[in-house]
Design brief:
Elements (H helix, E strand, L loop, with lengths): L6 E8 L8 E7 L5 E7 L2 E2 L9 E4 L2 H6 L3 E5 L5 H4 L2 H4 L7 E3 L1 H13 L8 E3 L5 E4 L2 E7 L8 E7 L2 E5 L17 H10 L3 E5 L12 H13 L6 E4 L5 H13 L3 E5 L1 H12 L12 H5 L6 E5 L9 H6 L13 E4 L8 H13 L3 E3 L14 H11 L3 E5 L3 H12 L6 E2 L6 E4 L6 E5 L4 E5 L2 E4 L3 H12 L1 E8 L5 E10 L8 H20 L8 H20 L4 E8 L1
Parallel strand pairs: 3-6, 6-7, 7-8, 12-13, 13-19, 14-16, 14-17, 15-16, 17-18, 19-20, 25-27
Antiparallel strand pairs: 1-2, 1-21, 2-3, 4-5, 5-23, 9-10, 10-11, 11-12, 21-22, 23-24, 25-26
Helix pairs in contact: 5-12, 6-7, 15-16
Length: 560
């Protein structure tokens, strides 16, 4: 290969080895003069292992070096794991953004919230659009998913054609929007697909994901079975077809719908702004719903994943301003349990059940279908596209490896590679080849700042959470005499019987701190750094011996 030969490369910085936080780059040109496009820029969410962190984004250090050569960001759809990092990271990238109407509307709102709407070159493109960015000829192909306007992106280059599927399923009757554009997928397959970069979420699930049409029918039947009772339905706010199904099912059963939760209002507003939800009639305000008999109201709520601040959690805690549920009422979860959320969801459902509320979930009724392709749907997609290379994305490591195995085995694809984030992959007729490793990882949104996952604050926070914190203050004068303290305080330690255990421990800490101070040579006692380090060292050892914990110990010296 000559030094200045054009190359086509794929580089995932998020979404490989995890479900969420998707960020994909495609580059074309000679090695030192490549032009790049970004497909999706999403987030994932923090958990117990990241105390104080709610939003996590891909590390984009690599983008700083290529910033002037990034031609644009193309958003496949409006789920948070595909577009949630845009408003947060765009100032570090600064390139044009392209989105279809529904995604564009939500993107405008996010940019406006952070004061960037006037700064970002944001393009609204229509479904099935075809446009060019430098050497990339891009075409959107309509798919189906659990949100309006999901798109595959066809990326044509002089080195070959890529089909980037984004998130998808095959829903023959999606209720909102058109079905999968099979004719275009087949036509692209006839044109010749060098690479398919494809969703792996449900690769272990046999059969097909199912249709929203079946969910709508079952919801209508289910709601009819609870006539005369108070009712709430929890669902993903972004699944506008599901929201419409709940609204239509409520209407068929003489109930009016009241939206509860900010995301419900935001998604409904976005859908109506682009012409969706035109058949559902008027929605009740919370005050209107409160004044009506409960048997004629259906509350459509956020919080299906047990999120502590979401609407349904506030209702379960009896903290909601207007909505009250109790004995004899029912809550329908038209959603699935996202792995990792089990604890919060079960706690929410148990709290409701303890108040006499009946719980109905997709385990007992067909009131949810996935938005991602199962094995039979993957087989259909590969049959239409007939790619030369398979690159599985959007999955944990086991998903990607199974997808690659399936592609080469059952689907007969010649080459398959399950990538890691940060692996730059050369794409050619010879097959995929890893040619570079670039920095990858995670960024955390922490108190309004964006910091590295390696930031010391998170390590300290974890340590405090698991091992506790001791703060000790001492007062010394200019002659190095101890005139106040040591005064210890503790957080995160067991108090024992009426606090006796903790009091005894703090007495010991004070004794050890004073002994440590007096063990210093007289000329060192007025040196604040020397005093703090000696006390810190001795107290750490004491805490480790007494509790087995490596607590954070802070010493503050006040000099008067």
């Amino acid at each position: 290969m000559t030094k200045n030969q054009d190359e086509l490369v794929f580089l995932p910085l998020g979404g490989c080895g995890e479900i969420g936080m998707n960020l994909n780059l495609y580059g074309f040109g000679p090695k030192h003069a490549r032009k790049w496009i970004i497909v999706d820029i999403g987030v994932t969410f923090g958990g117990p292992e990241t105390p104080g962190i709610e939003i996590i984004m891909p590390e984009i250090e690599f983008l700083y070096d290529i910033k002037d050569d990034i031609l644009g960001i193309v958003l496949t759809h409006a789920h948070e794991d595909h577009m949630g990092a845009l408003a947060r990271l765009w100032p570090r990238i600064g390139c044009p953004v392209y989105a279809t109407p529904f995604t564009h509307y939500l993107t405008e709102g996010r940019l406006a919230e952070v004061g960037l709407l006037g700064d970002v070159e944001l393009h609204k493109i229509q479904m099935k659009a075809r446009f060019s960015l430098g050497p990339f000829d891009l075409e959107l192909i309509t798919l189906t998913h659990s949100i309006p306007e999901p798109n595959a992106v066809v990326i044509r280059t002089p080195a070959g054609l890529i089909l980037h599927t984004g998130d998808w399923k095959i829903d023959p009757d999606p209720q909102i929007g058109t079905g999968v554009d099979i004719d275009r997928l087949k036509a692209v397959g006839d044109e010749g697909v060098l690479v398919i970069v494809c969703d792996s979420t449900n690769v272990f699930s046999p059969g097909v994901a199912g249709s929203e049409a079946g969910v709508r029918k079952e919801l209508t039947k289910l709601i009819s079975e609870y006539a005369g009772r108070g009712m709430a339905v929890a669902s993903f706010a972004s699944n506008v077809a599901r929201l419409e199904s709940v609204m239509m099912a409520a209407r068929a059963n003489n109930r009016s719908v009241c939206l509860i939760g900010r995301s419900m209002h935001r998604m409904t507003e976005a859908a109506k702004a682009v012409g969706m939800l035109s058949k559902v009639g008027n929605l009740l305000s919370e005050d209107e719903a409160q004044s009506m008999p409960s048997e004629h109201v259906l509350y459509l709520c956020t919080g299906s994943q047990g999120e502590p601040r979401a609407a349904l959690s506030r209702i379960a805690k009896r903290e909601h301003r207007t909505v009250k549920l109790g004995k004899g009422d029912v809550v329908i979860f038209s959603s699935k349990i996202i792995p990792g959320n089990e604890k919060g969801i079960f706690a929410l459902q148990n709290s409701l059940a303890d108040q006499g509320v009946e719980i109905v979930t997709e385990k007992s009724r067909d009131i949810h279908v996935s938005g991602h392709p199962c094995r039979d749907e993957l087989k259909e997609m590969y049959g239409w596209a007939r790619p030369h290379i398979s690159i599985p994305v959007h999955g944990e490591r086991r998903h990607l490896l199974e997808h690659a195995k399936l592609a080469k085995g059952e689907f007969g694809i010649k080459h398959a590679l399950a990538p890691h984030n940060g692996e730059m992959i050369l794409l050619s007729q010879k097959g995929p080849k890893i040619i570079d490793i670039v920095p990858s990882g995670r960024l955390h949104e922490d108190g309004g700042l964006i910091v590295s996952a390696e930031d010391a604050s998170l390590r300290e926070r974890r340590k405090m959470a698991y091992c506790g914190h001791i703060a000790i203050s001492v007062v010394i004068n200019n002659k190095g005499q101890l005139i106040g303290g040591p005064e210890p305080r503790a957080s995160g330690f067991p108090h024992g019987n009426r606090g006796q255990h903790l009091d005894e421990l703090l007495d010991e800490v004070a004794d050890v701190a004073e002994t440590a101070f007096r063990s210093l040579r007289r000329e060192k006692r007025s040196d604040e750094d020397e005093v703090e380090e000696r006390i810190r060292s001795k107290v750490r050892r004491l805490i480790r011996e007494r509790t087995g914990k490596r607590a954070i110990v802070e010493v503050t010296t006040i000099k008067v």
